[in-house]
Design a protein that fits this description.
0% strand
């Protein structure tokens, strides 16, 4: 795990900072966010995806964990991230009226962030070194998806 510590420590810091900034942005614009159809779902999506990056990177840094336990934690984060973002989208009134293309794009982005985490969990649990590469990819994809979701949220709040 030692070669990966610096990477995952940096990702914990980045994801924690970004998650905190999104929480502040939502808090400052809470009335407008809640009043506009679709914005609560977008806010939830951004928070879920960024939090999944934070949780995965944090789990990897816990010392002396058995690989099976770490793998289960990583896979659980991936499943919870995907389930949470899809549930937020389903509950959104806006996603029901939006065309297929934006809904499909969001589903693909959510899957691109969560799927590598699930694969990583399985590989780490099996003791394969490639699992941490998949975990790194999942964290980076989650950060990218979370940043995009947060950016779109802020643009829509400003309208």
């Amino acid at each position: 795990m030692t070669p990966w510590e610096a990477f995952f420590a940096a990702e914990v810091g980045a994801s924690a900072a970004l998650t905190g900034l999104v929480v502040v942005a939502i808090s400052v614009n809470l009335a407008r966010t809640l009043a506009t159809a679709g914005l609560p779902a977008r806010a939830a999506e951004a928070l879920i995806v960024l939090t999944s990056a934070l949780l995965l990177a944090s789990a990897v840094l816990i010392p002396f964990q058995p690989e099976v336990i770490l793998g289960a934690e990583i896979a659980a984060v991936g499943f919870l991230s995907l389930g949470g973002t899809l549930a937020a989208r389903r509950r959104s009134r806006r996603s029901q009226v939006a065309s297929l293309a934006p809904r499909l794009l969001h589903a693909i982005l959510d899957l691109a962030a969560a799927a590598p985490m699930v694969v990583a969990g399985v590989l780490v649990a099996e003791g394969r070194a490639t699992g941490l590469y998949w975990a790194a990819g999942g964290v980076v994809a989650a950060l990218a998806t979370g940043i995009l979701s947060a950016w779109l949220l802020l643009i829509e709040i400003s309208r």
